[in-house]
Amino acid sequence: MDLKNIFIIIFLVGVFIQLCLDQILEFIDFRHRKLYGRQIPEELAGQFSDEILDKTCRYEDAKYKFWIPRTFVSTALSLVLYFCGFYPWLFELIWSWCGRTFLTLFIFIFASGIPSSIISIPFSLYNQFGIEQKFGFNTMTIKTWILDGIKNLALSILVSAPLVFVMVVLLEKFTFTWWILLGSVYFAFSLILSVIYPTFIAPLFNKFTPLEEGELKERLEKLLAAAGFKSSGLFIMDASKRSKHSNAYFTGFGKSKRVVLYDTLVEQLTPAEIESVLAHELGHYKNHHIIKKLCCLVPVIFVVLFAISCFIRNPLLYSGFGFAVESVVPQQLLGVGLFLMMIVFGSYEDLLSPVVNFFSRKDEFEADAFAKKLCGTGKNLCTALIKLNKENLSEITPPKIYSIFNYSHPPLLERIRALKD
Predict the structure, then answer these.
(1) What is the mean pLDDT of residues 280-303?
(2) Which of 281, 363, 391, 395 is catalytic?
């Protein structure tokens, strides 16, 4: 392997930066939790018992101590796959077997993820049936865990196959403009998935039952009407068959939009609190947060694909990873180039998280403010957030630097203070 290759240098530097940054941030959070995790801020006095604070710290500590070996194993695997020449060996094996570009790339993309999938199995099992079980969150059976894995694999194949096919065709037929066409297809495909997800995909994993008549449904329907939000219905999802964590969300696009409440959420909150949580979600809709994110995401997709188009015909990208390429990149390898570019630059994603999280938290504050205005008070949302924080054993005051990199939602105390202003 050529350690002087520019792409390999970028790859190795990225892996090192990601590993060090994550370790430093997680340790800062761990240390902060040891010092201040069992202290109650003045604004939340009387809301959290010592028992809840202690359990929250133990839960977060357990996840941290589990995260350390998982991270090092994952990083080690990435380096081993590179240094042992796994990717060129795998590609040559598949190519010699079928000799067709589409089929080779399709099998290669899935087969290249097999080592990490195998390594992740014991970690995933321990997280679900060890940590989550110990702290009272897990309600999933081994059978459900296995079936979920099979369903996810089948869906990945069904969704990826047409995209890989389109990618291969565009790379072969449109030498210089393939990235524009592929970006357009990807965006259109994402919109189609958002339309069919509520009706055809989500029911494969959970049961969705229309919300029964009663006070809660009346309150929520009035709230939707007041906000001018039209949906295909209010549904309860049987989230409790897998976990006791709770949530609520909108899903779908256009006429397929629906409001989904976890059954655990309905059990934990009062109708007034659920109404405030839904009002928060309506705030995202009324402030056009989803549309704004799409408007930002679309140009990013095209910029990334354009950048990739500038490099996938560079022989150094392939030779650095052990592919036998000299001056001209074979046509059948161009699809592999997209995969290699993700490996090279994937580790730098963490460096962008502060910017992404900043705008995400800004949206959350705006949605909270909208909920307060729509409901006439922020009190119910405050009590709902406190309950959900306790039920999910989330940290109350994580370190500022940690939340900047890791929190897409503002920490509890910041949201409470904003709602009370």
Answers:
(1) 89
(2) 281
